[in-house]
Design brief:
The chain is of the alpha/beta class. Helices cover 38% and strands 19% of the residues. The protein contains 11 helices and 11 strands. A hairpin with a 3-residue loop joins β10 and β11.
Length: 312
């Protein structure tokens, strides 16, 4: 499955690693992990990791994010991780690289790169990268293993989500053989500032039930700007305050921003991905997102969620 990707990595002396905008733990973990795997396996290669950064996951960085000039893309390979659509890629300059490759675990939306490995059976892109390293005999240092393990934790919900499989645990075991401090991971990943806990409490009070089976939160731009938090924290960071309401099967968090209405959709029962794709987004069967034009479009998406739950 990984032969073409490995051939490209071995062919190119300069490799630039991209991932999606507003990176979560899996995006950062897979990027940092792959960076170290390539550098440790092929020390002579130039390797760069580019893109924006989400403060919540900054602790996962094993090295600074690179700021590079356009000229470095000439004759280079760009690898895109954890991204299902072109519009979601952080730093569009991957298009000017000589060759491109993609590794992803999301449901397929469109072809992005020259060579692609898209496998939805993996709970995370970090797990997919780790599987490649394991299968192909690449060097996995403690730094790489820790980054990849953290990515697996975040996208598997600490091994609780139904995307977790026996392969997830085999890969986790492979990574843990590299000896790193898991307590350090959990301390940084799940310990929150008092301000974040207080913000979460405010969002619990904002929950509305569209029906007995569908919950939602809507935050307009003025309110979002009144919080001392970035849009990622308000949007993706708050969606799962609705995740444990008895009887609720699907839930969605809408957040107005300068770029449109950020929409995070989750379900414990239904495949909500087609709804996200309908509105220009994507993701997984039970966890997807999109960016919408306005409140009217947000309410149309909410109506689609309601209709989906009523079909059963």
């Amino acid at each position: 499955m990984f032969e073409k990707i490995i051939e490209l990595i071995e062919k190119y002396d300069r490799i630039i690693i991209h991932r999606h905008k507003n990176p979560d733990g899996d995006a950062i973990g897979s990027q940092m992990g792959l960076y170290h795997i390539i550098k440790d396996t092929y020390p002579e290669k130039e390797v760069y990791a580019v893109g924006d950064l989400t403060p919540r996951y900054a602790f996962m960085l094993t090295r600074p994010i690179d700021e590079i000039g356009d000229e470095l893309y000439a004759g280079a390979l760009a690898i895109i991780l954890d991204t299902s659509a072109r519009s979601l890629i952080s730093d569009e300059r991957y298009t000017i690289a000589e060759a491109t490759a993609r590794m992803d675990h999301h449901l397929f939306v469109e072809k992005i790169a020259d060579e692609e490995v898209v496998c939805t059976s993996y709970e995370s892109c970090a797990g997919l990268v780790a599987a490649m390293a394991k299968e192909c005999g690449l060097t996995v240092s403690s730094a790489a293993a820790k980054a990849l393990f953290t990515g697996i934790i975040t996208d598997s919900g600490r091994f609780r989500y139904d995307s977790t499989s026996s392969e997830t645990f085999r890969i986790a075991s492979f990574l843990m053989e590299r000896k790193f401090d898991t307590s350090d991971i959990y301390k940084n990943l799940y310990a929150d500032e008092l301000s974040f806990i207080q913000l979460r409490a405010k969002f619990v009070l904002k929950i509305q039930l569209a029906t007995k089976k569908v919950a939602f939160i809507y935050t307009d731009k003025a309110e979002a700007e009144s919080y001392d938090a970035d849009s990622f924290t308000i949007s993706r960071g708050m969606v799962n305050v609705m995740g444990e309401i008895r009887g609720v099967e699907s839930w969605v968090n809408f957040t107005e921003s300068d770029g449109g209405v950020l929409c995070e959709i989750r379900s414990n029962t239904h495949n909500i991905n087609p709804i996200a794709v309908k509105y220009g987004g994507g993701g997984h069967q039970k966890a997807s997102g999109a960016t919408l034009k306005d409140r009217g479009e947000a309410m149309a998406l909410l109506a689609d969620l309601i209709a989906q739950t009523e079909e059963v």
